[in-house]
Amino acid sequence: MKILVIEDDPIISETVTICFNLRWPEAEIITTDSGEQGLKLATSFTPDIIILDVGLPGMDGYETLRRLRSITDAPAIMLTAKDGEVAKVKGLEYGADDYITKPFSHIELLARVRAVLRRTVASTPEQSRGSYLSEPAGLEIDLDSRTVHRHGRLVSLAPLEYSLLYHLTSNEGRVLTHSVLLAKVWGQEYVEEVDYLKVYIRRLRTKLGDNPQNPELIHTERGVGYIYQVRLRTPDTIGEPGPEQADESSTESAPVAVAAEDAMSHYLPEYDVTKANNGKAKN
User: Fold this and answer.
1) Does 218 have pLDDT greater than 60?
2) Cα end-to-end distance, the chain, whole Å
């Protein structure tokens, strides 16, 4: 496993390095205190995971992450002294996979890294191999190659985005609650992180060309969760308010068909460090 640490505080950088060395002695770890140098290393070192500080001098962590996303899909965990919803959402919007607030313990760091790696190397369940096709929506998902097309155009999705779409389409017509989606895609330890889910739903809609104000594919059940259901807009209904704009007082709602315990049936496998040097999983 290759780990790139971009952190300008030498104490934190050393602490993170020691932490990883103790947990994964075989891991290759490279550190830098510069966002610019981090971009170069992302190309030459090809890390499996990136630990990135928000408050870098010069090019800050957000801008570094934005540029990293044009170079690599390696999962990135952001370190920040700011503990707030705005800072967290901003990092996720720029492409972060997780977020840790300083000061943090080595236990929390390792737990977050394991969770991110577990999600990254996870694959679609064997029994679900094949393809998903919705001709009215123009959506096609090849479960073997993990590729997505809409209206014949390839849609490039990050691993988490693909996993989220997979679970939504696999339960077409049924509402998946926030906690169930978070448990299925991120893991049980993330069931309270609704902000993560909102950010990724927004990104998924954008990539699929699904207008959040009048969606045709992914719909919000306010205060409950999300449902994948094809509801194409006809010319005479385009100007009408969509489900996302509906009055929250409405009592009509699609059935919540996924029980809480069902979340346990789709947990992603633990990251196997013995396979870390045999090549990284690809999206």
Assistant:
1) yes
2) 17
DSSP-derived pairing of the beta strands 175-177 and 153-155: unpaired
Asked if residue 54 lies in contact with residue 82, where contact means CB atoms within 8 angstroms, the answer is yes
The span from the CA of 77 to the CA of 181, in Å, is 20
Q: Which of 71-80, 176-185, 273-282 has the lowest mean pLDDT?
A: 273-282
Cα separation, 125 vs 268, whole angstroms? 9
What are the structural domains, with CATH classification, of the chain? 2-121 (3.40.50.2300), 127-266 (1.10.10.10)
pLDDT digits (tens, 9 = 90+) for 3-62: 999 999 999 999 999 999 999 999 999 999 999 999 999 999 999 999 999 999 999 999
User: Which tokens is 57 given?
Assistant: 């001098």
CA dihedral 211, 148, 48, 19 (to 10 degrees): 50
CB burial readout 124-161, b (16+ within 10 A) else e: beeeeeeebeeeebbbbbebeebbbebeeeebebbbbb
Report d(CA 107, CA 100) in Å as an integer.
12
Q: Can you tell me the distance from the alpha carbon of 73 to that of 55, in angstroms, rounded to the nearest whole number?
A: 22
**Gap between the Cα atoms of 202 and 187, Å rounded:** 20
Instruction: Tell me the per-residue pLDDT of 166-175, one tens digit each, with 9 for 90 and over.
Output: 999 999 999 9
